[in-house]
Design goal:
heterodimer, A: alpha+beta, two-stranded antiparallel sheet, 3 helices, B: 732 residues, 7-stranded mixed β-sheet
Chain lengths: 198, 732
């Protein structure tokens, strides 16, 4: 994030204050060991009230992998992440296609643009609420996990909250196999500039 | 617990002689709690009583060794300011009983070993052995073990970057699940498993103590397996990776604040082991209060608390004036931190429970255990050696190649490692599927040009060891050295896990002694020390003992991490075969796959040639990729090279070899190295200078693997055989 021009800081899950942050990233991981259900305990972390507040104010919020699962549990993005089709954990590279360019994670990207970014999850099988057609920010070229409409990342109606299963930070250096993830992170920083100005 | 015919000590796995020794050490009959403590501490698993006399002949010194055997893990200096801790351990029997939890807690245990030095765990590798996947029980074990490793390691945020999966009938009923962890000191300081002096306090951090895992070391790890192993399931611990993650962060914070004088993990033999070993290491005694231990079940007896192997616990030695702050740090991470004992002069381990004295024994005697020189009789292998595989009937090379690529031991392990997070922490420059994994270090200078790197590989040729245990030991070292050299690293140090049958059988002890001798000779030839490891005996099922399986975990170093050799060759590269190919098929994968035989003579070991080859391959800037020749020989190595590179190859066999042994024999000290055509002279010149035989045998090109006159297989067919084998067995 620093390389993309941001000034990032960590916030403890037990804190209620985001200390004036312009945007929030909920990163990947296994908050509370994913016990009970992915994100089900973490959504009750004290910091999540502040995250919800920031989201409703229209500020950029990006959830990556476990962060996406937490956003879904907190109803900040629609839908749920079920277990992968095939019922196995998957750590592998995927090719993504940008679908909706009007979100904080895809601003500045082109519709149909291909990104090579890896996934790393057991519960990434995106399922929308019944009868709903959520905004899809990215989709997989080859669906690895059974996700609805190949969705790899979805946005809320306003486009300022995005959850994505692929890990852009793992595709941020040519040594790691791809730099395409930087485009997503840069888009988030650019979105901060836009929302802060507004 | 006793019956009319079985005395308590025997039920706990102690011999009559050992019981008499305990009486002598403490000067009276032991209490139940004392007997329980001795039974775990003097078990084979904890005391190394049958193996110690051999292990001390292994070379363990080198200028870069900071900590050698005897500590929680080995510690080596890999670059100025960069110290790496690493160790391997077995969790075979728990995994045979309950594969998911057995494997998961195997990862948890070795991670705590690394943590005990104050190092941050950064990578895991898992060498695995199972019976054939044609049997449902073996598929169940394989699936459960892989899921268990994935569930625990992934959740901890640790990349699993390597290991092996090999399938052989010798492991049916007794799979091998070894786990290796690598860590890095965030500053150069490390902790020992000892208090600084009398007055220091022992603080138990992490999970509450329960009835899980009671007697794991003495019952599961130190006896053969019999039918009805499920009855031993209560001895298998249950893992809680989230608590382990908190434990890692809390302990590293305690260390960075300078709040601890020493630390030890709680693994086999739990509190007993941690208290007695830390006290003995400082030449002290320790006085403990078992009532203060936080319990899961309130009615636990003193002996149960002492023997419990509940996971996710660490023991910290802390000076009295730091206790308050230390407990605060642990609380921040949501962990229990409880004062359980105090170190004192005098050398005795004294334990109280419910205002009663339940144990009072010399800590050092408890910690040290007996030392045995078991009878040794070399097994008669003359009949097995007499078979000459060259005289057998062999299928056409092309058919044989496809059969080998589809054999689970050789086939792609992508199915395994894509269930493991192998990328997290963003250090992994070469991922699983190559000869060795490459990680860049330290994390604080991630991405800086010229930062150092390490290469990691494991190897344990059990089938070869079953024909010649000395060769098996030597080749475990040589193959893992070749593996790290193939990615451009210099072999630096090893850890090992020695998996054998019952030490009470003289043939097993003879195999063990020979394998250790082989490891020692190879290490001396490479100038590579052994910094620690683990011995796992009693790997037997009603069908007999497993192959003698010495598994080596090799740590290699790259002065510049980014100078690694990647896994792929380029279209147009010349393929150079390094090393000498002999008419050898004994112990080969081909012999096992085609004739279902493990026989003949093991391939000849030439340590001089191995050292020269590794030296050549560690040369920076030489060639595009390299690949070790091992199981399946040249034919399989060429196919793997094509598969990894996404391009075919056209090759002519050397003039002096026959197709079957030339392509599928497993002569040692060989590798493939590819390079652009303009570099061939430089590569061959460098080889010649080191006395390594080198021959350009063909080029990377086209969409077929073409071995002049004997094989022509399309890249698609080759990849589908190689990649499809394990998924078609496991996901059907």
């Amino acid at each position: 994030m620093r390389r993309e021009g941001a000034d990032p800081d960590y916030v403890w899950h037990g804190d209620a204050d985001l200390r004036g942050a312009d945007a929030v990233i909920l990163p990947g991981g296994f908050a509370h060991g994913d016990y009970l259900r992915t994100g089900a305990i973490a959504r009750f972390s004290p910091v999540m009230d502040a995250v919800a507040g920031l989201a409703s104010a229209g500020a950029p919020v990006l959830g990556i992998c476990n962060g996406f699962q937490i956003l879904a549990e907190a109803h900040l993005v629609p839908g749920a992440l079920r277990r992968n089709e095939g019922l196995r954990f998957l750590c592998t590279w995927t090719d993504l296609e940008v679908v909706d360019t009007d979100t904080i994670a895809t601003r500045g990207l082109e519709k149909g643009q291909r990104l090579r970014i890896p996934i790393n999850h057991y519960e990434g099988n995106y399922t929308p609420p019944e009868g709903a057609e959520p905004r899809v920010a990215f989709r997989y070229v080859d669906n690895p996990n059974g996700a609805w409409q190949n969705a790899a990342g979805v946005a809320n109606d306003a486009g300022n909250v995005v959850g994505m299963m692929p890990h852009p930070e793992r595709a941020s250096e040519s040594w790691l196999g791809s730099e395409d993830g930087r485009l997503v992170l840069a888009s988030l920083v650019e979105s901060c500039r836009v929302t802060t100005r507004a | 617990m006793t019956t009319d015919t079985t005395p308590l000590y025997a039920a706990l796995g102690l011999s009559a002689e050992e019981y008499r020794r305990i009486q002598k050490v403490i000067g009276r009959d032991p209490t139940h709690t004392e007997l329980a403590m001795f039974s775990v501490m003097w078990s084979e698993h904890c005391s190394y009583k049958s193996s110690r006399m051999y292990l001390r002949d292994l070379p363990s010194d080198a200028p870069w060794v900071v900590l050698g055997p005897g500590e929680g893990a080995g510690l080596v200096q890999v670059a100025p300011g960069v110290r790496v801790a690493f160790k391997m351990e077995s969790h075979n029997h728990p995994s045979a009983v309950e594969p998911f939890q057995g494997a998961a807690t195997g990862v948890g245990g070795i991670v705590r070993d690394i943590l005990s030095l104050g190092a941050r765990p950064i990578a895991v590798l898992d060498p695995l052995r199972f019976g054939p996947l044609s049997e449902e029980r073996n598929r169940f074990l394989f699936d459960g073990v892989v899921r268990g490793i994935a569930a625990y390691g992934n959740s901890l945020g640790l990349p699993t970057v390597g290991g092996e999966a090999i399938f052989d009938a010798a492991y049916s009923g007794n799979p091998l699940v070894n786990a290796m962890c690598v860590g890095i000191l965030e500053d150069e300081a490390f902790l020992r498993a000892a208090p600084r002096g009398p007055g220091d306090i022992a603080v138990l951090i992490g999970s509450k103590t329960g009835r899980d895992g009671i007697g794991g070391a003495s019952i599961l790890a130190s006896q053969e397996f019999e039918a009805g192993a499920e009855a031993k399931r209560p001895s298998v611990q249950v893992g809680d990776p989230f608590t382990e993650k908190l434990l890692i962060e809390a302990c590293l914070e305690l260390k960075s604040e300078g709040l601890m004088t020493g630390m030890q993990d709680l693994g086999a033999a739990g509190i007993t082991c941690a208290l007695s070993e830390t006290a003995a290491a400082a030449g002290l005694g320790v006085e403990g209060d078992l009532d203060s231990v936080p319990l899961r079940e309130g009615d636990m007896e003193a002996w149960e608390i002492c023997m419990s192997e509940s996971q996710e616990r660490m023991l910290a030695c802390i000076a009295p004036d730091r206790i308050e702050r230390a407990i605060e740090v642990c609380r921040k991470w949501g962990l229990d931190a409880t004062v359980v004992a105090r170190y004192v002069d005098g050398g005795r381990l004294v334990l109280r429970a419910r205002d009663e004295l339940v144990g009072d024994v010399p800590a050092a005697d408890l910690a040290d255990g007996p030392l045995y020189e078991r009878p040794v009789i070399e097994a008669d292998r003359s009949k097995i050696h007499a078979l000459d595989p060259l005289e057998l009937h062999w299928p056409a090379p092309e058919e044989l190649l496809l059969r080998l690529l589809g054999s689970p031991s050789i086939a792609s392990k992508r199915w395994v490692w894509r269930q493991y997070d192998h990328m997290v922490r963003l250090n992994t420059l070469v991922a699983p599927g190559a000869d060795a994994a490459v990680l860049r270090l330290p994390e604080s200078s991630r991405g800086e040009a010229g930062q150092p790197g390490i290469a990691l590989a494991t190897d344990g040729p059990g089938r070869i060891a079953s024909l010649d245990p000395y060769a098996g030991g030597a080749l475990a070292v040589a193959e893992s050295a070749r593996n790290v050299a193939c990615v451009g690293a210099r072999p630096l140090a090893i850890t090992n896990c020695l998996n054998f049958g019952s030490p009470e059988r003289p043939e097993v002890m003879a195999d063990f002694a020979a394998a250790v001798r082989g490891i020692g000779d190879a290490c001396r030839a490479f100038g590579v020390p052994v910094t620690g490891g683990n011995v796992s005996f009693y790997n037997e099922s009603p069908q007999g003992a497993v192959h003698p399986t010495p598994i080596v975990g090799m740590l290699g170093v790259l002065d510049d991490a980014y100078a690694f050799r990647g896994p792929a060759a380029r279209d147009g590269d010349v393929i150079v075969l390094l090393g000498r190919t002999r008419p050898e098929l004994g112990g080969s994968e081909a012999l096992a796959v085609v004739h279902d035989l493990i026989a003949g003579r093991a391939p000849a070991v030439d340590l001089g040639a191995e050292v020269a080859l590794a030296k050549l391959l560690s040369t920076t800037g030489l060639g595009t990729t390299a690949h070790d020749l091992s199981e399946g020989g040249l034919g399989v190595a060429l196919a793997e090279l094509c598969s990894r590179s996404g391009v075919g190859a056209s090759v002519t066999l050397p003039p002096d070899v026959e197709p079957i042994w030339g392509l599928f024999g497993e002569s040692t000290a060989r590798a493939l190295l590819t390079c652009p055509p303009e570099d061939v002279d430089r590569v061959l010149g460098a080889a010649q200078e080191l006395g390594v035989a080198g021959l350009a045998i063909g080029n990377m090109n086209g969409a077929h693997l073409n071995v002049e006159g004997v094989i022509r297989v399309s890249l698609d067919d080759l990849i589908s055989a190689y990649e499809g084998a394990i998924p078609s067995l496991m996901d059907r």
